[in-house]
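Reopening closed ticket. The problem is back. First fold of the pair:
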Amino acid sequence: MERWIRTDEKQEFISSMRMVLKSLESVKEDLDQWKWVVIALHNAIQGAMVQALRAGNDFRIMPDKLAEKCYQAHRDNKPWPKVKMDSFPNLYKKVQSPDMMLFYVHSKALPADIERDTYIEKLLELRNSFIHFMPQGWSLEISGMPTICISLLTMIEYLCWKSGNVIWYKEAESKIAKELVLCSLNVAQELDRDYAN
């Protein structure tokens, strides 16, 4: 019997948020679950940024030079070069750029936030350390992790429901996704209070 997984950018985001929530809830009993929080949160943020930049095509989520080549190929009715997504740091810059984000009359760019910039850098550093783990002994202080999660989950909520750029064609998808984000935010706030004591 054949089995298929069907997905798109909305389902990928929802799947990542399910993992964020599951991992955050598991952290209470198993601190090793912070690894999966980091990896899933990185994936969820990337998904939120992609949705906020998309505007019906993929040009804004590609590296700029590749987007120009694809656009020219499209205009010339020629085959496109192989497409790929821009880097996470570049996507983060783009969602803060009015030039990139203001494509609908009600669109808003993500407001700049120096503290959040630091949290994004930390998340990237941790995610890369986990994904490309080199044999070593490593001690990671996790006392600030709930605060990082709160900031970055708030960013996700903004991009997906307050920027005006993400169109949820299915109300049920929007409801599930928002509930996952808000539940994750609640768990992170609870952990933040616990870690403060």
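Second fold of the pair, where the issue appears:
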Amino acid sequence: EVAFDAKAVLTQLAKASPDNGRDIFKRCMACHTPDKGGRNLVGPNLWGVVGRKIGAAQGFNYSEAVKNHGSDWTWEELAKYLHSPTETIPGNRMQFPGVKDNQDLADLLAFLRTLSDSPAPLPQ
């Protein structure tokens, strides 16, 4: 198996489709809301997730693994986590196998970027 390369996904981000990402995100809506001021479900609300401190959604009870991760949701962290949540943050509670297709992952990231009043700059 080829090791996952987050940077390969990030190079696709500038041309990624937020509309396709919205379709991919439908799988996430069982546990997450995308709306500004949206409520937490089984997982935290994802408005403003790009650039946010990991484990910092208001009012969400995170696992110790996530609370103690001590980083931000950078493009690279999001790409790695959404590719393989259990490998990226062992002990987290997200029961999701990950998005294995690089283009789908780039599209999902492009959609997550739209969940903000001022979208994060694309990676250089």
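Update: turned out to be a display glitch only; the data is intact. Residues 102-113 form the longest helix (12 residues). The helical segments are 6-12, 18-25, 64-67, 75-83, 85-88, 102-113. Please close again.
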